[in-house]
Amino acid sequence: MGFLSEFWFLAPAAALALGLLALAPLGEQVLRRGVVFIDLAVAQAAAAAALAAATLIDHPGWWQTQAAAAAGALLSAALVAGLARRWPAQRGALIGLLYVAAACAALLAARLDPHGRERLAELLAADVLWAGWFQVGVLAVAAAAVLLLRPWLAHNALFFPLFAGVASLAVPVLGLFVVFAALIAPALWRRAAHGWGLALGGALAAVGLGLGLSWGLDAPSGACVALGLALFGAAAAFSPAGSGPGPSPQTG
């Protein structure tokens, strides 16, 4: 116990690293499909469902909360897939409306829970420093699933449910802001034709910078990490084009 307490930061660091491994390949697919709002819509739906579970069930366990979050995320992903197929020209606007609807549902659910405001804040910008080894194990399973299934992520029938499942697992641990930034920031570097080494290595450095900023300023860790990833992602616009692989075609 003395060793673990002395190196308590290993669990949060591992959770963030595994979260990046799980989310970055999915973010690359999000940009290829042109459905950037999907991560916000799906993650917000997962948060709204988790808040609803806390309102309807007295002290829900982790499995109950996770089941509710997964159900909300899967429903949102199914709607996104249907909208993208039915109205491809307007899919960005429609997915944005889904995000707004999920955000409003989360606010309404939080209003019915005495601790709803605190729960909502945690789901938006989680304090990553509280992540434990159980959460690390959950994210390790998610990362392993994404890496194993990565060759088939271009298929919508696999991508959308996998994305929903990973988002529902990551949001309670990392928060919606970090999940969105971890999806998009490395993907922007990949979009600029840079390799995964730079995309993930730079994202890990940004995460470390965010944690250091959180430690030095005694500021919320989730917000600081998301800020670091956002700045790293924006820097891709000013980087010389790499020589990595360009966007690959997707299949339905």
What's this entry about, in short?
With 252 residues, the chain is mainly alpha-helical. It is 77% helix and 0% strand. Mean pLDDT is 85; it is low at 247-252.
Question: What keyword list fits this structure?
Answer:
0% strand; 252 residues; disordered C terminus
Structure commentary:
The protein has 252 residues and is mainly alpha-helical. Helix content is 77%, strand content 0%. The chain has helices at residues 2-6, 10-33, 37-56, 62-86, 91-111, 116-124, 133-149, 156-174, 176-191, 196-217, 221-235. The radius of gyration is 18 Å and the shape is globular. Mean pLDDT is 85; it is low at 247-252.
Structural class: mainly alpha
**What's the helix-strand series?**
HHHHHHHHHHH
Separation of the first and last Cα atoms: 50 Å
Query: What is the overall number of helices?
Result: 11
Q: Tell the overall outline.
A: globular
Biggest sheet descriptor: none
Rg over CA atoms? 18 Å
Strand content is under 5%
Provide mean pLDDT, rounded: 85
Per DSSP E runs of 2 or more residues, the count of β-strands stands at: 0
Low-confidence regions: 247-252
Q: Give the % helix.
A: over 70%
